[in-house]
């Protein structure tokens, strides 16, 4: 049974009460679905698992809260777009409430040794410090000895091997992978004293492997962000069409020509409700994708900063966080159509629908 998270850090209305994962507008398995018999919402993944375990034919889905059941397949349950809309609105409010002011030097990936408000783009192999180009020239041009120093790009800085925590004058040579071990790295002396029966790996090899993994994760996150940005552009274009007074006026004119100019005409109301909900769905998806892009940008920056600093590569937390993000698949969706591209019948006997054979965005 998944552990229930702290209520102070999770907004309970925005999570599935079975798996306790956040609902999402883009992850198909995490979209909130409404149980028809009672109106409670759970993620599609959990509802499908409940139906699968029912052991009946056809499968029965029983609400975990009130125990009402239905033989309608979970994939046919309505999506709770109202909940998703509120969730994304709350995320927007949180973003606006974050303080705009930043600390001095904040946002810089690697600070210059001479001036912490400058970004370091050169690494001195003798000083073992990073400098911006201006400060490097100023610090090294006055001394003949320092003029002999060699500078490389920050990206070419060698990996930093940590010192042994028990013998500060020695470089660590291995990493202990026993979970409960107090010292994760150590030197050859520590190997005999504290890690005699522990499973260890060569530290330098582990650092180089982690460095390569970090670089690869950064590249994959960039590709994922590019795909999400493309989706965001498509949604934005579609949303603009739902704000187009020309298209809406044209459709409403066709309706009034057939049924007369009456604001209370049911067909006209039906059309306006259609426009409202289609637009809401697009807005909800836009907010969710924008949030995903922001999360990727934060993670990209963390990875790049760590990779440029070349320290503590043996710590896997950041790579694990990146892998978790990359495992979240981008839901494959049809083209986001503009309002004028919908097949529209003025009598609204059928809901306006998209073209039968949409082009693929892939």
TrEMBL record:
Entry's transmembrane regions: none
| Keyword list, A-Z | Metal-binding, Zinc, Zinc-finger
Q: Cite a single GO MF annotation.
A: zinc ion binding
RING-type domain sequence ranges: 16-67
SMART domains xref list: RING
Which GO cellular component term is one of those annotated?
nucleoplasm
Q: Which residues form the B box-type domain?
A: 112-154
User: SUPFAM superfamilies, from UniProt?
Assistant: RING/U-box
Pfam families per the record?
zf-RING_UBOX
- Name this protein carries in UniProt: RING-type domain-containing protein
Q: Name its species.
A: Caenorhabditis brenneri (Nematode worm)
């Amino acid at each position: 049974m998944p552990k229930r998270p702290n209520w102070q850090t999770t907004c309970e209305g925005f999570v599935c009460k079975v798996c306790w994962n956040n609902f999402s507008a883009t992850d198909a398995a995490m979209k909130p679905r409404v149980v028809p018999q009672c109106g409670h919402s759970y993620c599609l993944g959990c509802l499908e698992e409940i139906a699968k375990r029912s052991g009946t034919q056809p499968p029965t889905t029983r609400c975990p809260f009130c125990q009402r059941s239905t033989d309608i397949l979970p994939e046919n349950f309505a999506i709770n777009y109202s909940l998703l809309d509120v969730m994304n609105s709350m995320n927007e409010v949180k973003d606006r409430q974050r303080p705009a002011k930043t600390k001095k030097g904040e946002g810089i990936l690697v600070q210059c040794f001479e001036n912490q408000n400058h970004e370091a783009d050169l690494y001195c192999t003798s000083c073992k410090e990073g400098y911006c180009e201006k400060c490097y020239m100023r610090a090294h041009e006055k001394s003949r000895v320092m003029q002999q120093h060699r500078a490389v790009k920050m990206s070419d800085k060698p990996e930093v091997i940590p010192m042994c925590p028990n013998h500060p004058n020695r470089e660590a040579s291995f990493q202990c992978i026993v979970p409960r071990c107090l010292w994760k790295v150590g030197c050859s002396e520590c190997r005999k004293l504290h890690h005699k029966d522990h499973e260890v790996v060569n530290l330098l090899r582990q650092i180089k492997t982690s460095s390569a993994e970090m670089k690869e994760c950064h590249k994959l996150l960039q590709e994922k962000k590019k795909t999400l940005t493309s989706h965001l552009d498509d949604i934005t274009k579609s949303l603009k069409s739902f704000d187009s007074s020309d298209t809406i006026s044209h459709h409403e004119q066709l309706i009034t020509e057939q049924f007369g100019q009456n604001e209370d005409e049911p067909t006209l109301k039906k059309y306006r409700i259609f426009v409202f909900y289609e637009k809401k769905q697009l807005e909800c998806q836009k907010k969710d994708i924008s949030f995903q892009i922001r999360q990727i940008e934060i993670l990209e920056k963390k990875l790049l900063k760590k990779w440029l600093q070349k320290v503590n590569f043996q710590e896997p937390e950041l790579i694990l966080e990146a892998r978790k993000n990359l495992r979240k698949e981008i839901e494959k969706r049809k083209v986001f159509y503009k309002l004028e591209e919908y097949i529209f019948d003025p009598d609204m006997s059928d809901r306006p629908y998209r073209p039968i054979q949409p082009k693929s965005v892939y």
